[in-house]
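Data deposition worksheet. Section B asks for the primary sequence of the deposited chain exactly as it was used as input, without tags or linkers unless they were present during the calculation. Section C holds the resulting structure in token form. Section D is free text for depositor observations; keep each observation to a single sentence. Incomplete worksheets are returned to the depositor.
Section A, Depositor: J.P.
Section B:
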Amino acid sequence: MLRIILFILLITACIENGLAQSQSVPAVIQSDISGVVREIHDDDSIAVAVPNANIRLLNAGDSSLVKGMLSDSNGRFLFADIKQGDYLLAVSFLGYATSFTQIPATKFRRNDKIDIGVIILKETEIQLDEVIVEGQIPELVIRGDTMEYNPAAFQDEGRGGSRGLAETAARIGSGQERQDNNDKPKSDKQGFSQWKRFF
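Section C:
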């Protein structure tokens, strides 16, 4: 009998303790934050949706990222279940100036949505300087088990001119190169000239 009374007292104390703790803990207020991103064209002054705009929800105190997303095809965005606090909403898109909107903690209400409304992005007039792209012809390309040499990549700067390897090889094969150099090809023991052995 004594055990039953002690068990009932223990359960009653646990229940009262749990109720006291649940009443002392303040409820966390969370809200949804939504809005629409648009741009205005200079020629028709009609606001047009900006899809895939970069939307970042930043902590106002240190600008640390809380959440991020892209706007949908209609320019809309929605951050769900954001805890009450001071935030900064940064909206950016390539070619447009970044827009910042402050969201103070006082806007948060229980089970309520915070509608930022329409955020208009303005075009930035940044003009790039001239861009020069320079490349180099690859000397060698490996395709599977074959090595292909690109003759245009090899230049003969020898006698006051620029000649491609293909032209040089053709002249050597025809004997014209030997006449230009006034050299006779040297022969080895087998009777082959050095240039024939090379090519």
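Section D:
The chain has two domains: 30-121, 135-183.
The helical segments are 2-24, 165-174, 176-181, 194-198.
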